[in-house]
Write a structure and sequence with these properties.
single chain; alpha+beta; Nuclear Transport Factor 2, Chain: A; 5 helices; 4 strands
């Protein structure tokens, strides 16, 4: 919806009615049943995207298990160092995330396949960088929280490693 257009085409009563309908949906959503694993995992992806775009390294690390390890030999601490360096180099970060597939195993383990377009602005000659990657994330349910336990990734068109 175009913000300026709302003020020109809707009466105050219509705007109030729309706000009331929105409030009812929000309240109804709060009182509903607990979301299933797929919805929880989508929220996990959204939280990770938001943390990356706002460069909240600690929030990203909260999504990663202390037992994290991957085929590159990285652990949680090394992933944290990579994030620190990336966040310092980028003035701003934008992600375009597409969840390609979610697979849940036994209600406590999951794999998520993502395609992520990354763009950032930075100081330098060009001032802009962009990449696209595929990710396969492995997560486990730890209490009420899904945590990343391993990941594989590659640039689009290349094999995951």
């Amino acid at each position: 919806m175009i913000r300026g257009a709302t003020h020109n085409c809707c009466s105050p009563i219509a705007r109030a009615a729309l706000l009331l309908i929105h409030a009812i949906f929000v309240v109804a959503a709060c009182g509903g049943p607990e979301p299933g694993p797929d919805e929880q995992l989508l929220r996990w992806v959204d939280a990770g995207q938001n943390a990356a775009e706002t460069k909240q390294r600690a929030d990203m690390l909260d999504l990663i298990s202390p037992a994290y390890t991957d085929s590159n030999g990285y652990d949680r601490e090394e992933i944290g160092n990579i994030l620190r360096l990336y966040f310092l180099r980028q003035n701003s970060i934008s992600l375009l995330t597409s969840v390609d597939d979610i697979r849940v195993y036994g209600g406590s383990a999951a794999e998520i396949d993502l395609t992520v377009g990354m763009a950032g602005t930075k100081d330098g000659v060009f001032g802009f960088s962009a990449d696209a990657y595929r990710f396969r994330l492995e997560l486990e349910l730890d209490g009420d929280d899904w945590l990343l336990i391993s990941a594989r990734w590659a640039e689009l068109g290349k094999e995951l490693h």
